[in-house]
TrEMBL record:
Gene3D superfamilies: Aldehyde Dehydrogenase, Chain A, domain 1, Aldehyde Dehydrogenase, Chain A, domain 2. Residues 29-490 form the Aldehyde dehydrogenase domain. Keywords: Oxidoreductase. Signal peptide: none annotated. The active site is at E265. Belongs to the aldehyde dehydrogenase family. CDD domains: ALDH_GABALDH-PuuC. This is Gamma-glutamyl-gamma-aminobutyraldehyde dehydrogenase. It comes from Marinobacterium stanieri. One of its GO terms (molecular function) is aldehyde dehydrogenase [NAD(P)+] activity. PROSITE patterns: ALDEHYDE_DEHYDR_CYS, ALDEHYDE_DEHYDR_GLU. It comes from the Bacteria.
Amino acid sequence: MKTRDEWLALSQTLEFRNQAYINGEFRAAASGRVFPTQNPATETVLTEIAECDVSDVDLAVEAARTVFRAGTWAELDPGQRKRIMLKWADLMDAHRDEFALLDTLEMGKPISEMLSIDVPDAIDCIRWTAECIDKVYGEIAPTAAGTLAMIHHEPAGVVGAITPWNYPLMMVCWKIAPALAAGNSVVLKPSEKAMLSALRLAELASEAGLPDGVLNVVPGFGHTAGKALALHMDVNVLAFTGSTRVAGMLMGYAGESNMKRVWLEAGGKSPNIVFADADIEKAAAGAAAAIFSNQGEVCIACSRLYVENSIKDEFMAALLKASERYRAGDPLDPATTMGPVVDQTQLQTVERYIGSAIEEGGQVVLGGQPEYQPGKGFFVKPTIIDNTHNGMKVVQEEIFGPVLAVSGFDTEEEALALANDSRYGLGAALWTRDISRAHRVSRKIESGMVWVNTWGEGDSTVPFGGVKGSGNGRDKSLHALEKYVDIKNVFIRL
Ligand code: NAD
């Protein structure tokens, strides 16, 4: 493992790709405009990036449509498509350190998390999805004798992907890998807060043999580039990860334009339930990881903790101890467990929610409001607020920072009612040694994902996504491929 100084030295040798990637080449935005992207740990500008708007999006969609119609990728032999994607994954593998650095520098995630989670997961996503290409079959329906009904899964056409900044590389791969594997062309609009890894990824895809125009990247702002993509009349499918607020807007844009299919992976306010029979030490370590990993900038962060009252004091002591391992520090230092939050707005959001929790009667038992020092990075403290209740903003609204709201419960029914009292339904964790209770509660929790005696674990083979205000789509697994195909049936009278 490299030292902090070695990472710093390596970061100074990086050449940032800072232009749009359209039809296989880097180019300036049509308007010539650029905007800065900064390092949240130092508040210095890393580079200025092409600020794409509607003209660039039009150009990218046109390139994507042209190559799709030509069939250069969509109709290429599945085995050949697979080989290109596998080569792409190998190239990513060869540039692991570079990818780790790009996201760490741009959004502040600890380099150790990039190396242990984001980069390997992103590579595995491309590899696993590539392997599916020549293993997914069409269907023949059991129709009457004298007829043949074939059900084809055809690529949908041009996929628009809009992604967030909290796992920049990983979220991009979760979208574009299945979209490309299914034979589509893609126009990607990464978050304006973290675009560097997406641009490099597109360049490596070309190096691996992906034909020009199949993957285009248009950096820019949501209300311009993102909106243009979402309203575009020639985009067939829109795949989004981001906030619930913007997710709702995209559904509106689809209705206003061409009724494109919209897949949404949105926000969360996941509950974590600790029953009295849980392994307290493991549950405490899990509860701390579930809110402080990636500075709490995690869609599945368990930001609501419900502890059975009979063990609450003992559990809180264990939780405070487990939380000691999370301290904000230089994300380039491999020992750092929490980086800065992504920008000043995010820091102020954290500050505001802690303030509102105190006003509403919460008791800060760890951390508290950030002590921001201008120019020294957007660092916040791991914060735990006890004595909260479901009527409080800090319990109902997504903060997207390292702030945990804690309250107690007495019965399983009460725990379930508290957990389900939310507009969100992304993930949920529960800790118990009682296998029947684990099954019972998992079934009744309103969420797309449940973790029992663990938190956040996943695999390329397992779908990821939510219900209620957390969205309607699933990334990863074979279910992700389904989002990007149209079903066509051909009925033949023999
Ligand atoms: P965001 O909604 O602000 O932005 C997400 C993307 O949407 C960005 O690329 C942004 O430019 C774009 N956008 C913004 N306004 C737009 C508009 N009017 N039209 C089109 N595009 C627009 O979210 P964020 O701050 O980047 O990310 C944090 C959010 O993402 C959190 O709510 C988090 O829970 C969620 N998230 C969800 C998952 C999941 O799998 N469910 C995973 C990661 C993050």
